[in-house]
Structures are given as structure tokens and as C-alpha cells.
């Protein structure tokens, strides 16, 4: 192939040349035989460290599928491309490695969109190879053609349209590099069918160099010193920690800093597990459904140190009244996140791990006894987290509490989106990074089951528990068969309240109980405001669904059966679906009404 010089602008701001360095091609010619583009893609997965590929076939990727089974790659066939991306995402979150998926053009590619956007919002490294119609047919409305570059541009860190087979080894290396460096994110490689069939002698370059994309970021030492001085002087400091600490493998350094300088720590949903929630310094989660102590501490602190968090609106509420007394410091690898939502007084751009390592020796060993005493009083005033003890119906919070007790806090919890997600954050205490996996930024229902499959593949010897709602599980329930096929012993816990619970909660509070479009009963209407657990009016029948997919099932509606059932299922090496019939009217508390100040949170309903 003759290498054509073409330069394209990327979302990363990088300007990448799609031409292969002639020297590389020539050298390879001399040494090795030619490979097809399809083979280069599959080899590219292996050469760049992938072990598991989640893929779904179709016309324009048949050449790739023809060679993928000649490698040692562990190939998994999810039953929907959305499932493939979420599974790759769960694998990436649980392992810290790049998740990989492979899909066909047109509908195969468009089915990945929600998964890519989910990964993009949470900064998860993925490489997604999409087949494309032949180069000559692009733009002709060819069969199964979709403008993957156009569609994925705003929801990926970068995307490539491969125009020359000679570029594939280099582009594959660049895709993995871009996905995993700086703030991680998903990268799409769109490969036309004719390019897959052409031959090349090109090989993976020794090193990746992308003009205008330089993720080798070294924080300014003066900014770190300024932050250390602020920490040494602060009377009421708080560490506000996000998923960046987990992505940056900096949980130990963060914990060391908190202990050395005696700084209370609150985490975002994505930051759960970055600091042990059992530690006396833990304030637990902050924000809309955060703990009273965490939110009050943020509102009253004189120094707020954000580490790998992005001041999301679910955290800040009204930004003009967020942390009003604080000097704000922000450590983040992503420069664009600093100062985006909130005025930052001490910006530190850099990878959190080396920044914290450099910061630590400059920080004095300290105690903040009056501040800790005030915080302890908030913890007593509204303990994090509680639920009513006098409910007639089984409460979902109780079930999660028991999951925590029986698993001894050692499970990897993967959630879907809704009330159960927040309760999983409240009633399970996380002490290890990568032990809580959830779609935070996009809030994607349907994420939980496939992500749990990915997590179990990444961590085969650990207990993986998917906590899902009866609504969200129906969005990707087909993936259950994958767990059975690959003997993945995931435990799926469906908290069945017969409602789209989180939406019902908002309708109860903000729409005068007009329960519109949220009831998941046989009639689709509210038969009885408080459905008795024995009344089997919910559809689908999740036990039959489990059976149809070859999984074990168990339905539980009495509190006294929960612990023995959990013990049995956690000891099993098979996949299980457990359905808990829970109160349809439980609410997630505390709750900050949207766009209100953190100070105005509701801790109890009248
Ligand atoms: C794909 C998608 N569609 C819609 C929503 C809006 N939404 C957020 S929570 C929720 C209800 C979830 O219900 P369920 O899965 O039963 O969980 P629960 O809240 O009852 O725990 C909905 C519809 C969403 N987050 N994602």
C-alpha cells in the first residue's frame, strides 16, 4: 500500500497523521510477511495488552472474525452490542486495563453509542473497533452504513477512520495509548471492509508519538507547595475525592495524606472505595444523596481539596452557594476540568498519584480536634445512613445492609441506575478501590448486568454482586446467558419494587404523587397503592427469566429468609438471580432538591 499523507484534527486537540512512517514499513517489509488489515487489528489487540474482547459479528467484520479465533484472546459474545460495551467498561473499571469491543457497521456501531457515552462521562478506557462499509462506498448510503465518526465524535476521547491498511498497527497502538493516558476515555477505530482485506508489512511502532497530544503532564512544583501551605494553615480542611483517584491508582497516597494531616474525606459516587468508609475520617458520599455530615462539612470548611473530581452538579447543587467559606484547590490531570464549574484558587494539573507523592512530605503532621468534634456532632445529628426499622414490608435498604454483612464488605458491587444505586452507595461500605462499579456521569440504566459480567471476567476469583432494579435489568437482561455460557458466578440481586423507583420518588416529592409511566405491574396501573408481597402482579416473572437463560433463581419476600439465602448463594460457584420483593414506596434519603444548596438537604419527610 502506498501511504497517503492525511492529517486530521482530533477531539483531544491532537493532530494525528494517518500516514505510516515509510521507514517503519520498509524495515518490516524486509523482515516479515504481509498481514491483512483484519489480522493487524486482532494482533493490535494482543500487542497492546488486551486479553478479553467483547464482540458481535456482522457483514463488514467477517474478515476480523475469521482470524480472531486464531489468537489467545478470550472472546466473549454478548447478546447485544450495548451489552458488549458495558461489559468491556465493567472489565476496565474492575481491572484498570483498557476494555475492548468489536462490532459491525451500521446498527452494530449505533448500538454502542450509549455504552461509549457512559464510558466517556466516567473517564473509562475503552477501544472499540467498528467495521465500516468499503471506503469507496462511504457516503453512498450503502447497506448498514452509519457515520460513525460523526456520531461518536462528541462521546469519545478520540476516533479514527482508517483509510490505509498501512496505518492499522500504528492506529491500534495510538488508540490504546489515547484511551489509557491523561484522563482515560473511549476511543473508536472505524475500519472499512476493503481496508481490512488489504495487505501490509507495517508493524506496531516502537513508541507512540502523537503531535499535539502530550499526556506526559508534570505538575508545577510551585502549585504543589502552595497547596501544602494551604493545608498546613487550614483549620477546617476537607478532601473531596472522585473517580480520578481510582483511575490514577492513588488510593494509598490519598489515605496517607488524610491520616498525616488529619483531614476528613468525602467521596463522590465514582470515588467510592478510594478511601476506607470504615475510617473515622470518612464522611461518606456527598451531594444530592450525600450524608448530612459530608454536606455540612463542605459548606463549612475553610479549605476544600478536590482530588480527581469534577464538581458535577449532582455534587455541588447550586454552585453559587457551594462551599462558600472555602479556598478551593483542585488536583486533576484534566486541565479542562479545573475551573470549569467552580472558581478554583489553587489549581494543580497533574496525575494525582505523583502530585500526592510530592505533596505528602511538604504537609505537616497535624490534628484538627475542634473541626473533628464539630463533624462528629453532625454525624450524631443525622447518622449516615439509616432506614426505618418499623416497615411492614421488606425494605430494599435492609436487603443491601444484609448483602454488606454477609459478604463482609468484600464483594465487588456493580449497580444499575436508580434508587438501588444510591442505596448501594449508602448501605455498603467500600474500603477498596475498584470495588464499586456504577454508571455515574451518564446514569445509564441497563449498565449493571453486562458490567458485572465484565467485572467477573476481570476478577474471576472474587465475589461479584450486581444490584439492579426491576426496571433497569429489563434493559439488558439478555446478557444473563453470557454469565451462564462462560460459567461466571455473578450474583444478580433484583430489588423488585414494581416501579421505576427513582422516578416514582421524584413524582411523589415534586409532582404531587402523579405516578405517570412508572408502574411495572401486569396492568401497568397502580392496582393497590401498597402491593402485598405475596400478590404476584409484577411482570416479567424473573424466576422464569432466570430459568430461560439457564441461571438459578430465588425469590425472597420475607426478611427472615434474606440472610440464609445470601449465604447459600454467595457460597455457590454458579450464576444466580435473586429477586427481593421490596416495599414500593421506600425513598432515598437524605435528598437535596435539584439546583438547591447543599445546606438545604431534606433528611426526613414529614
Ligand atoms: C437508559 C435510561 N433511561 C431512563 C433513565 C431515567 N431513570 C433514572 S432512574 C430510573 C428508574 C429506575 O428504576 P429501576 O430500574 O426499577 O430501579 P429503582 O429506582 O426502582 O431502584 C429511570 C427511568 C435512565 N437513567 N437511563
What does this structure look like?
This protein has 606 residues and is α/β, with parallel strands linked by helices. The chain is 34% helix and 16% strand. The protein has 23 helices and 22 strands. It has a 6-stranded parallel β-sheet with strand order 5-4-6-7-9-8, with helices on both faces. A 6-stranded parallel β-sheet has the order 13-12-11-14-15-16, with helices on both faces. Helix 2 (37-47) crosses helix 3 (62-68), helix 2 packs parallel to helix 8 (168-180) and helix 12 (251-261) packs parallel to helix 15. The chain is globular, with a radius of gyration of 25 Å. The termini are far apart. 53% of the residues are buried. Mean pLDDT is 93; it is low at 1-31. The structure holds thiamine diphosphate. Thiamine diphosphate binds next to helix 18 and helix 21.
Instruction: Output the structural class.
Output: alpha/beta
The helix content is 25-40%
Distance between the termini: 73 Å
Radius of gyration, in angstroms, nearest whole number: 25 Å
Amino acid at each position: 500500500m502506498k501511504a497517503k499523507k492525511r492529517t486530521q484534527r482530533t477531539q483531544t486537540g491532537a493532530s494525528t497523521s494517518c500516514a505510516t512512517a515509510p521507514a517503519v514499513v520498509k524495515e518490516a517489509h524486509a523482515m516479515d510477511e504481509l498481514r491483512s488489515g483484519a489480522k493487524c487489528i486482532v494482533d493490535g489487540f494482543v500487542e497492546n495488552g488486551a486479553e478479553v474482547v467483547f464482540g458481535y459479528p456482522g457483514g463488514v467484520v467477517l474478515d476480523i472474525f475469521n482470524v480472531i479465533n486464531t489468537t489467545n484472546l478470550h472472546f466473549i459474545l454478548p447478546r447485544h452490542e450495548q451489552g458488549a460495551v458495558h461489559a468491556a467498561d465493567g472489565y476496565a473499571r474492575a481491572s484498570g486495563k483498557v476494555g475492548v469491543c468489536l462490532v459491525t457497521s451500521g446498527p452494530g456501531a449505533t448500538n454502542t453509542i450509549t455504552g461509549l457515552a457512559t464510558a466517556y462521562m466516567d473517564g473509562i478506557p475503552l477501544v472499540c473497533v467498528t467495521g465500516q462499509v468499503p471506503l469507496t462506498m462511504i457516503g453512498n448510503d450503502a447497506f448498514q452504513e452509519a457515520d460513525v465518526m460523526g456520531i461518536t465524535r462528541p462521546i469519545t476521547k478520540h476516533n479514527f477512520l482508517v483509510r490505509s491498511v498501512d496505518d492499522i498497527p500504528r492506529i491500534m497502538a495510538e488508540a490504546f495509548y489515547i484511551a489509557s493516558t491523561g484522563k482515560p476515555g473511549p476511543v473508536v477505530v472505524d475500519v472499512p471492509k476493503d481496508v481490512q482485506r488489504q495487505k501490509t508489512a507495517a508493524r506496531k511502532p516502537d513508541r507512540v508519538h502523537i503531535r499535539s497530544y502530550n499526556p506526559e503532564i508534570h505538575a508545577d512544583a510551585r502549585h504543589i507547595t502552595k497547596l501544602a501551605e494551604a493545608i498546613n494553615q487550614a483549620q477546617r480542611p476537607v478532601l473531596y475525592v472522585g473517580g480520578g483517584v481510582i483511575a490514577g491508582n492513588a488510593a494509598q497516597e490519598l489515605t496517607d495524606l488524610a491520616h498525616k494531616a488529619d483531614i476528613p474525606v468525602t467521596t463522590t459516587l465514582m470515588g467510592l472505595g478510594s478511601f476506607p468508609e470504615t475510617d473515622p475520617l470518612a464522611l461518606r458520599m456527598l451531594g444530592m444523596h450525600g450524608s448530612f455530615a459530608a454536606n455540612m462539612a463542605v459548606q463549612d470548611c475553610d479549605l476544600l481539596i478536590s482530588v480527581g473530581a469534577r464538581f458535577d452538579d449532582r455534587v455541588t447543587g447550586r454552585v453559587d452557594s457551594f462551599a462558600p467559606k472555602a479556598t478551593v484547590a483542585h488536583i486533576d490531570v484534566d486541565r479542562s476540568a479545573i475551573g470549569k464549574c467552580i472558581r478554583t484558587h489553587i489549581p494543580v494539573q497533574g496525575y494525582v498519584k505523583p502530585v500526592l507523592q510530592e505533596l505528602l512530605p511538604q504537609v505537616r503532621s497535624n490534628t484538627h480536634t475542634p473541626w473533628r468534634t464539630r463533624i462528629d456532632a453532625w454525624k450524631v445529628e443525622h447518622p449516615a445512613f439509616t432506614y426505618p426499622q418499623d416497615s411492614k414490608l421488606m425494605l430494599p435498604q435492609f436487603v443491601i445492609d444484609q448483602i454488606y454483612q454477609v459478604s463482609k464488605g468484600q464483594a465487588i458491587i456493580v449497580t444499575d441506575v436508580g434508587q438501588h444505586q444510591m442505596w448501594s452507595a449508602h448501605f455498603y461500605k467500600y474500603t477498596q478501590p475498584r470495588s464499586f462499579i456504577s454508571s455515574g456521569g451518564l446514569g445509564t440504566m441497563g449498565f449493571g448486568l453486562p458490567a458485572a459480567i465484565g467485572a467477573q471476567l476481570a476478577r474471576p476469583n472474587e465475589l461479584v454482586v450486581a444490584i439492579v432494579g426491576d426496571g433497569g435489568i429489563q434493559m439488558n437482561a439478555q446478557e444473563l446467558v453470557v454469565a451462564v455460557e462462560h460459567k461466571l458466578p455473578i450474583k444478580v440481586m433484583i430489588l423488585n419494587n414494581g416501579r421505576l423507583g427513582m422516578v416514582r420518588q421524584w413524582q411523589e416529592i415534586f409532582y404531587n404523587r402523579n405516578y405517570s409511566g412508572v408502574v411495572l405491574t401486569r396492568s401497568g396501573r397502580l392496582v393497590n397503592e401498597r402491593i402485598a408481597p405475596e400478590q404476584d402482579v409484577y411482570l416479567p416473572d424473573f424466576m422464569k427469566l432466570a430459568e430461560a437463560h439457564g441461571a438459578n433463581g430465588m425469590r425472597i419476600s420475607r426478611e427472615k429468609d434474606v440472610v440464609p439465602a445470601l449465604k447459600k448463594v454467595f457460597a455457590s460457584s454458579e450464576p444466580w438471580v435473586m429477586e427481593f420483593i421490596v416495599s414500593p414506596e421506600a425513598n432515598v434519603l437524605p435528598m437535596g432538591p435539584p439546583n438547591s444548596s447543599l445546606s438545604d438537604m431534606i433528611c426526613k419527610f414529614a
